[in-house]
Structure formats: C-alpha cells, structure tokens
C-alpha cells in the first residue's frame, strides 16, 4: 500500500523551474550562433585568409547548436522526473548540476563554450585567440555580452539547484515512508486435519424413541392369568 503524495515543497518546485531555465538558456545560446551564421563564416574567412574556411564557421555553429540541444535534453529530463519523490532522481540531478559547472563556467571567462566551439587549423594557422578576435570583429557587440550573461545566470541556476535539493524540506519529501501491505496468506497445510482430545463429561443422550414399548414374554415363574370376565 502506498501513501498519498505529500504536497511538493517550494524548494523542489523552484529547483524544477531553474532546470527548465537552464535548458532554455542553452538552447537560446545555440540558436543565436545559427542566426548569426553569416557573421561567423566571415570571421573564419578573415582569420584563416581562405574563402574555403567559411565551412569551418558552419561546422562551428551547427556543432554548438547540437551540443546545446543535447545538454538541454539531459537537463530537462530530471526536471520532469522531479515531479514525484524519487530519491535516485534527486541524487542524479545534483550530480548533473555539479557537472554543469564545466559546461557554463568557461563561457563566463570568454573561453570556449558549447554554443561557440572554435575550430583552428593547428600549426601554421591562426590561434584560437586570433579566431576569437576575428569573430568579435564581425559579430554584434552585444553577442559576447549575451553569452557571458547566459553563463553567469547558468552558474547561479546550477548553484541554486544543488542548494535547493539539499535543503531539509526537499530531503524529507524525497524520503517519504513506505507503508507495508497486508500479510500474505500461504496455501493450507497438507495432510489430514489434527483432531483434539475427546470432550470431558458423560455422553449426551438423545430423546427416547417414539411409539408404544415392545412387550416381550413374561418372566420365568409367573403364570399367565386371563383377565376376569
């Protein structure tokens, strides 16, 4: 038998909202790279000095969108599963939130992020710093600031998710008690039934038989006499 679900605490509801916000921001960050695909391609052409390098910009933008979509999917699944008190979902969400620091923190410091991976040619070609500078020259000025803002909000959201799921109201809701069901009855025992001792006291006699009594022959030594007329 299962207990009715207790009301979801505000800490769990807020953690689910932060997970959804984190997934939405990553998708938006990836979509921005696709919207400014022409500017990214021009930045790669200027950085490499080769018109054929425009394909590197396309690969960079599409790869960033795919990575952001995969990350958003990984984040949104725990947000849906947190609707019911499953302890393993809570632990998994905390672990994923901790790993998210590696995904969003480099972007805050201007490094490589999922939404804007960099492709370089290795030795003899432009460095990653030169590619970043060329992209910054072709992209709008607010583009880099938006990515940094996404990263800062993402770090705050990840920290909030971990803290909210570790608070006592959340921990108590996920550790709800389980009530045992009714006892299970097994099959009847094999063999003849066991008889107890006989009842104590005299046996019970039934009622006398109905009808006239049966007369037998007269006793010995007694002569039969006809009745007086």
Provide an overview of this structure.
It is a single chain. With 229 residues, the chain is mainly α. Helices cover 57% and strands 0% of the residues. The chain has helices at residues 10-35, 37-48, 54-81, 87-99, 101-108, 128-138, 141-166, 168-174. Helix 2 crosses helix 3 (54-81). The longest helix has 28 residues, at 54-81. The protein is rod-shaped, with a radius of gyration of 45 Å. Keywords: Membrane, Transmembrane, Transmembrane helix. Residues 187-220 have a biased composition (Pro residues). Residues 187-229 are annotated as: Disordered. The chain crosses the membrane at residues 57-81, 88-109, 142-167.
Question: Which helices and strands appear, and what pairs or packs with what?
Answer:
Blueprint: H1 10-35, H2 37-48, H3 54-81, H4 87-99, H5 101-108, H6 128-138, H7 141-166, H8 168-174
Helix pairs in contact: 1-3, 1-7, 2-3, 2-6, 3-4, 4-7, 5-7
Quick gist of this model?
Residues 187-220 have a biased composition (Pro residues). The chain has 229 residues and is mainly α.
What descriptive keywords fit this protein?
single chain; 229 residues; mainly alpha
Question: What oligomeric state do the depicted chains represent?
Answer: single chain
Radius of gyration: 45 Å
Percentage of residues assigned to helices: 55-70%
Distance N terminus to C terminus? 95 Å
Order of helices and strands: HHHHHHHH
Secondary-structure class: mainly alpha
- The percentage of residues in β strands lies in under 5%
Shape descriptor reads rod-shaped
Mean pLDDT: 76
- Discrete helix count: 8
**Number of E-type strands:** 0
Poorly predicted runs are: 108-112
What summary fits the major beta sheet? none
Region (Disordered): 187-229
Biased composition (Pro residues): 187-220
Keywords: Membrane, Transmembrane, Transmembrane helix
Transmembrane segments: 57-81, 88-109, 142-167
